[in-house]
Amino acid sequence: MRRFLKIYSAREGARRWIALPWKSSIPPINDHCWKGIGSSVVQQALTSDTGRLAFEECSVARQQLENIVQAAGYDANVFVFGGLVVLGLLEVGGDVDFVGVMDVEPGVGEAGEIVSRLSREMRRLGMKSSALSKARVPVIKVDRVSKLLPGTPLHHLSACGLFQFTRQLNDNETKSFKKRMQENYAATRVDWNNNQQFATIEFNSTTALVSALTQVRRHEGIDIPFRLPVDPRNGPELYRLPFDFCFSSIGLRNSYLLSNTLSHYEFSRHLLLLIKKWGRRSGVINSMDGLLASYALTVMCAHFLIKVGKLPKVSTLRSTDEPQLLPFFPEYRPLNDGKGLDLAELGFLTAAFFEYYGHIFDYEKNVVCTTNMNLLKKTMRWEKSPGLETGRPPFFEFAIKDPYGLDNIGRNLDREATEYVKDAHIAALKYILDERNDPEFTINNITQSPPRPQWKDRTLASRGIASSNCSPDQLEAHHMLKRMEFHERRKAMERFGQRTVRSTEQQRVVSSVANDVLGWIRSDDSQQ
Description:
Elements: E1 2-9, E2 14-23, H1 33-46, H2 52-71, E3 77-81, H3 83-87, E4 96-101, H4 108-124, E5 128-132, E6 139-143, E7 160-164, H5 171-185, E8 187-192, E9 198-203, H6 206-215, E10 218-219, E11 222-223, E12 226-229, E13 243-246, H7 250-262, H8 268-282, H9 294-307, H10 343-360, E14 367-368, H11 377-380, E15 399-400, H12 415-435, H13 439-448, H14 472-527
Helix pairs in contact: 1-8, 1-10, 1-13, 2-6, 8-9, 8-13, 10-12, 12-13
Enzyme class: transferase
Cofactor: Mn(2+); Mg(2+)
Catalytic activity: RNA(n) + UTP = RNA(n)-3'-uridine ribonucleotide + diphosphate
């Protein structure tokens, strides 16, 4: 039988019914456990938000990155996309996605050359960057170097830079350089070493520091090859965030399409945050080993909510807009705390999501799509060739259509990887149903130590991946090195996220205490 959801409208006092479009085996919506599950999902989501200050810091970092790109000679504006746009917040333990948008988008070869050059410039500035110039979408990956967390007060050295000249300057040259820094870059203090070859400069903002570091390459014919923050570990905002940077605008358009669609259900972001946490811990999010990227789970979540009638289909009317017409930076959208809303429905839909991708979705024939719920692989010509048991990427065992464009974002999953994804959803559903009488324990475990299906490490050759430039052993060794770097980066981001959670909670406690003290003072004043 189909399972029905009873929905109450507080504004109209009306009651309406939504049917899950499949025969569901999970307990009905009026089961006592679902409200507790929904409440725990909300609380889990609220702890995933680093807060407004950290979010707004990403906007400052965007401007600083744009200064670096333009100072390198590229006429590009930098936009934010990905999680910050879709979620409207900076996720704890997450990174930031930036994209450079030019009048004419560079091809893969040109983009690879650009990211290589920019990555070298970032390393010169004391950043931990690496360029994947040969990737399908060339990208720069940058790890945070600052020991300070986003949203926390800046260190007094964060706006200080060190400039080393190729020779000693005379008094007139030091005076003209100081004047240039004060008039053009808002320097507030310029100090010289004894031989006047090193200048330590304090600026009135971190963005002014980045502008000077990237633009002031020489003075009166004297080169300044060494330009760095005084202490990158206490550096500007851009140094406090892990981020990716590319030149493909497809992700920018997709982010705003999905953000607009998800905004129609007040708990869509809560569910998505839970799914992404589960995906990272369960191993489902692991593109390095041929599984899903985080973005794929976002599309899967949107598809599911559209399927059950909680969201409208993604509208592609704006998909033809030029990316330059989109905002440089999104607005901060705090999560709903769930008070007065239907938490039982959210709990029910959480289980229904895992049931859908564990038992209902037809991986053999169907496509996860946000514009057409009945799209088939055959229609996209993504079906597997008859008799083909093994192959090479792209695979079409799991088809997830990009909202903008015709790409399959599940193209790197072969049969074993697809079965792992399906089994992980089955295991998550079983765990939720078995432990649903203790909602907080259940949701904490699903996001921290969920059940994981058996997964055997496989060689690249067994996945159909080969290279004409090196031997299988060399390719495997290179992959293992990249894999170690990938997992180390993820662990570092998780540690970063845990520190951020503690810092955010401390800030909330301090704010609450401050408000209580102010309340007592005002109360005392009113009684005098």
